[in-house]
Amino acid sequence: MSTAENRAVPEHVAIIMDGNGRWANARGLPRTFGHRKGVEAVRETVRAAAEAGIGYLTLFAFSSENWRRPEAEINDLFGLLKSFIRRDLAELHRENVRIRIIGDRASLRDDIRSLLEEAEETTRNNTSLTVVIAFNYGARDEIARAAASLAADVAAGRLQPSDIDAQRLNDRLDTAGMPDPDLIIRTSGEERLSNFLLWQAAYSELMFVPDLWPDFSRDVFFAALERFRARDRRFGGLSSAKAAANGA
Ligand code: IPE
Ligand code: IPE
Ligand code: MG
């Protein structure tokens, strides 16, 4: 039996794209070469996600903690985001891809913020794959901003404290209106979430693959989707096989 929770193809896949620096180091190249090659992996992954029929693909591109990196590397990452949107927006739009941005955009430079907003605006009504770019994103920051927005409504008398429940908080997150990720993939062998989608990951399947992000490919992606199919998601209940045996 197939339910929305046990679909063969996950509705939402989120990826922590890690390992660009190590990919470059292993070749004796500066880290920036790894980031550049990583953009090519992004292009291939977006195509593969559309081909697989995934509804939402979220890509962790820059975390709220990545500001701890040297300024030159930060500038490089911002430059790559800009050139990606400039070069790829028209084609993504033609392919009916919708772009959404999550993260704290208020503290971004004006040129970056307006470029991101232009990408969202241009593709707003597209109906195939939604590509969610997590940029200047940190889950604790996102949850704190959602809490502050609810607190403002309480202070203004629009909400009572007892009105606040998980659904209302969920609706104030940057991901409001999106399904939770069914599958979160992290590349490069690291096994942690690094402040990514902490709220939304409550029942996500986690998958850690050894490949460094620049080596991520359609094949690696499809293999991960195949492994996902074998996972038994219970959401606190019983597995579908046991539920069926019990006459549910
Ligand atoms: C991922 O690769 C890209 C970003 C975090 C922006 P890294 O730059 O973290 O690469 P490693 O982890 O140092 O290899
Ligand atoms: C997570 O990777 C952030 C992104 C992929 C954008 P990091 O490389 O920043 O994570 P840590 O520092 O190893 O936890
Ligand atoms: Mg890293």
TrEMBL record:
InterPro entries: UPP_synth-like, UPP_synth-like_CS, UPP_synth-like_sf
List of catalytic residues: D18, N66 (proton acceptor)
Residues that hold Mg(2+) according to the record: D18, E205
Co-factor: note: Binds 2 magnesium ions per subunit.
Listed SUPFAM superfamilies: Undecaprenyl diphosphate synthase
Family affiliation: Belongs to the UPP synthase family.
PANTHER family assigned: DEHYDRODOLICHYL DIPHOSPHATE SYNTHASE 2, DEHYDRODOLICHYL DIPHOSPHATE SYNTHASE FAMILY MEMBER
Protein name, per record: Isoprenyl transferase
Organism name: Rhizobium terricola
